[in-house]
Design brief:
381 residues; alpha/beta; Serine Threonine Protein Phosphatase 5, Tetratricopeptide repeat; nine-stranded mixed β-sheet; 11 strands; 46% helix
């Protein structure tokens, strides 16, 4: 705690409408200054209560921009949450930063200092100065990818996500990682990527790691592996980043056609219970308390219509009242419930009441009034 209080942010500049910050940190561990880049998610300043996962990007000199850009793109389409991306520049000190003792195969000397800088200075500094969730990831390429795995060997790892882009594993690393992941009680995402044109010595060890981790039978471990065709040691990075993000945040993303068919329609409970469980899991995994996505509401509505489970509209309307009380959404679901369960007059009133509400999705005021007119034309009241 004392060390992190000694850290000082020296402001250098801000670009891209204030979303990307370039800063210099005075590190006690390194006894030197270190440049970092920080991308805040869109809307960070508009909601003072929302928290965000943090991703530390090693090789920030060239990896920060592709990670930050893809994170911004995915979160724009709500396929992943907004995240705080922190790039760490090495400034021609990469070799010293990731220095490993060849005998013990552990960070040593300058490598040990950099390891402590990331864990005991940089990450606490970000947590203290920004609204962070208790969910953090780290990204690296070849030597830095291997280096970040040493956090996974600690008793209480700081990171839940490890995006390994063609890592350069030393001897013993495969057994050490496997031993720690085999019996873990915490959720971990371990992404590993190589390519057919990767550096051959690296690829051989990566394939061995893939074979080892694939044998681990532990639901807490989310292991994802990609071997890209026609990609080099460097070009695989651009293809791996979106694949990693899709896999890591697959539960967060709105219900897909596949999830609709294989998950929602086949649930043993009600469709609304399935939806509620999905968001409870998002909270548990990513430490994010978020509203139910409107598209997910509509997917459940479609399932109700397809299966004729009209009573479930009642619970869906109640959930909509909790999530979007000021909008036309709950009125629409109450109206459909009343329509299909035999009370057209109440349905008519629900659709009419929506005129004073805020429009959402396709549920415009005109559309809701059209529904009311259709009911009135079919019934005598």
């Amino acid at each position: 705690m004392k060390n992190q209080l000694l850290l000082i942010f020296l402001f250098i500049g801000v670009t891209v409408s204030g979303q990307i910050e370039y800063r210099t940190i005075q590190s006690q561990k390194l006894q030197a200054e270190r440049e970092i880049k920080i991308q805040l998610p869109r809307g960070y300043n508009s909601d003072s209560t929302q928290v965000y996962p943090v991703f530390i990007v090693l090789d920030g000199d060239y990896l920060f921009e592709p990670i930050a850009g893809m994170a911004d793109y995915f979160s724009y389409w709500d396929d992943m949450p907004g995240v705080i991306v922190v790039g760490v520049n090495h400034n021609n000190q990469r070799g010293q930063d990731v220095y490993i003792d060849s005998q013990r195969a552990l960070p040593s000397e300058t490598g040990a200092k950099f390891f402590e800088f990331l864990g005991s200075e940089l990450l606490p500094l970000i947590d203290n100065n920004y609204r962070t969730a208790k969910f953090a990831g780290i990204v690296g390429h070849d030597k830095t990818a291997n280096f970040m795995n040493y956090y996974l060997l600690k008793d209480d790892p700081l990171f839940q996500v490890y995006i390994n882009l063609s890592p350069e594993y030393p001897p013993k690393m495969r057994a050490r990682i496997a031993a720690n992941l085999k019996d873990t009680k915490k959720e971990f995402w371990y992404y590993l990527a190589t390519s057919d044109n990767d550096v051959e010595s690296l690829k051989q060890e990566i394939i061995k790691m893939k074979e080892t981790l694939s044998k681990i039978d532990n639901p807490k471990l989310h292991f994802i592996f990609d071997n890209f065709e026609n990609a080099s040691h460097y070009s695989l990075v651009g293809r791996a980043i979106p694949k990693a993000m899709e896999a890591i945040f697959s539960i967060y993303s709105p219900i897909t056609a596949k999830e609709y068919e294989e998950g929602l329609l086949k649930t043993k409970g009600t469709f609304v219970e399935y939806l509620e469980e999905k968001y409870k899991k998002i909270k548990k995994l990513y430490d994010l308390d978020i509203k139910v996505n409107v598209d997910d509401f509509m997917q459940v509505s479609t399932a109700i219509e397809e299966e004729g489970k009209w009573d479930q509209y009642r619970d869906l309307a109640r959930l909509a009242e909790d999530e979007y009380p000021e909008t036309t959404l709950p009125n629409y679901f109450w109206g459909r419930y009343e329509e299909e369960t035999g009370d057209p007059e109440d349905a008519f009133e629900e659709y009419q009441k929506a005129y004073s509400k805020k429009e959402i999705s396709f549920l415009t005021k005109d559309y809701m009034l059209d529904l009311a007119d259709e009911i009135k034309a079919k019934n005598d009241f």
